[in-house]
Amino acid sequence: SAEEVTAAYLETIAKSSINGYTCTYDGAIEMAKEADKGEGEGLLAGVPIAIKDNISTKGLSTTCSSKILEGYVPPYDAHVIERLKAEGAVILGKTNMDEFAMGTSTESSCYGVTLNPWDTERVPGGSSGGSAAVVAAGEAPISLGSDTGGSVRCPAAFCGVVGLKPTYGAVSRFGLISYANSLEQIGPMATCVEDIATVMDVIGGHDPRDSTSIDREVNYRDALVDDVKGLKIGVPDEYFGEGVDEGVEKAVWDAIGKYEEMGATWEKVSMPHTKYALAAYYTIAMSEASSNLARFDGTRYGPRHDGENWHVMASRTRAECFGKEVQRRVLLGTYALSAGYQDKYYLKALKVRTLVKQDFEKALSNVDVLMGPTMPMPAFKIGEKVEDPLSLYLSDVNTVPMNLSGVPCISVPCGLSDGLPVGLQIIGKQYDEATIMRAAYAFE
Ligand code: GLN
After folding, report:
1. Where is the active site (predicted)?
2. Full-model pTM
């Protein structure tokens, strides 16, 4: 029964040592009992799911792994949570993440890092590290993450699971606590593509409460056709640039070779603006973050550090409760948006964004999908990059261009490098999740 399954997961979570969850849901068993009463009604009836801690859950702590939201319990559910509940899913708990989704390793969480189940001395990737690690460790069959610049795909690659970033607008962001709203999407993580498609059938679709939500009917499970004959794959040289680990490169080329054996063809394509994508991404993401995080000032949510007036109170609260990385980004973003500098940084970045988008449109007009490594390297050691934020930012080279352009992309496990999982990234045309999921499904 759903009750037994849920109880078994909760027991496994209680014994866990990877620190994947920020909290478990004490109503989980009740939800499972309800699902049992409904006798399998709903697409996810009785299926347990773990939720990233930046997705609002009514009655259940939602902190973005930040001290500034300590004790915050949302009075409403995000759109995706409403949809999951309507289809009978059981919420297991909230998962650990980089503070406000800013990071690539889950090391900036106020709850401490999550350990990679493949090697507990290594990071699980980020920022949705908890969501990927709990699926990899068998502490949840499926989870939700969010992807602003790779935060679903990176941890999926590092933990050896499947992770999808849908087309911008395919999943409502209502109730997702914004980091950089023009870039991010909620996306599912699971051990197989079929589960990804099922979750998408539940959470995808129009929601009038998100003005960027697309009004399109899609059946994601229809895409699961085990046939890639005639599929045209584009391989951008730029995704195999400097710093790509040899083992990663080999695993990805082996995967492309397998597609050829299955009847697909591949050709090289050019994405000339890829080298500017990272700088544009960080300028835009930090600018949006500086504005989005202005609401956390000790007035409405979380703890307050008092002062003689509002200014002192707000700045004390923010200085005490935001971590180092969040403060760095708010400062840089404020600078990039300030009078006199806006044209030089923010507007320039927006222009580069358009060029990157055009690269995708051009490349994808001749081929069906693009393929390359999700991450340039396998999971790195905990602590290895904490003192060097730039080297952390650099590891996002292959994941941020897709968020700038809005196209859908999926990371699927494609082998090992030095005993650690490698992710193959498959990228598709705007709204064409069907083709990338078909490609990923055939590869499994
Ligand atoms: N690593 C990227 C960043 O720090 C992406 C994070 C994300 O997708 N939320 O911004």
Report:
1. 52, 127, 151
2. 0.98
Other CB atoms within 10 A of residue 76 CB: 13
ipTM: 0.98
Q: How far apart are CA 414 and CA 342, in angstroms?
A: 42
pLDDT at residue 119 above 90? Answer: yes
Query: Is 315 known to be catalytic?
Result: no
Residue 39 has pLDDT above 90, yes or no: no
- The identity of residue 189, as a single letter, is M
Which atom of ligand 1 sits closest to the CA of residue 152?
A: 8
Residues ≥6 apart with Cβ < 8 Å to 343: none
User: What's the pLDDT score for residue 419?
Assistant: 97
Kindly report the backbone phi and psi dihedral angles of residue 427, in degrees, each rounded to the nearest multiple of 5, phi listed first.
-120, 140
User: What pLDDT score was predicted for residue 423?
Assistant: 98
Contacts by 415-419, CB closer than 8 A, 24 or more apart: 415/250, 415/251, 415/254, 415/255, 416/247, 416/251, 416/378, 417/245, 417/246, 417/247, 417/248, 417/250, 417/251, 417/378, 418/247, 418/378, 419/118, 419/119
Distance CA 277, CA 283 (A): 10
Domain boundaries, the chain: 1-269+352-444, 278-344
Looking from the CA of residue 179, the nearest atom of ligand 1 is 9
Do 86 and 45 form a contact (C-beta atoms < 8 A)?
Answer: no
Catalytic residue, candidates 56, 127, 146, 395: 127
For residue 278, what are its two tokens? Answer: 């990272």
pLDDT at 243 over 90: no
**Residue 52 is a catalytic residue:** yes
Q: Which fold has domain 1-269+352-444?
A: Amidase signature (AS) enzymes (3.90.1300)
pLDDT score at 88: 97
Q: Give the pLDDT score at 438.
A: 97
Cα 188 to Cα 278: distance, rounded to the nearest angstrom: 24
Determine how β-strand 185-190 pairs with β-strand 232-236. Answer: unpaired
pLDDT band at 235 (very low <50, low <70, confident <90, very high): very high
Q: Would residue 151 show up in a list of annotated catalytic residues for this protein?
A: yes
Q: Considering 108, 128, 131, 151, which one is annotated as catalytic?
A: 151
Measured by CA distance, the residue closest to atom 4 of ligand 1 is: 103
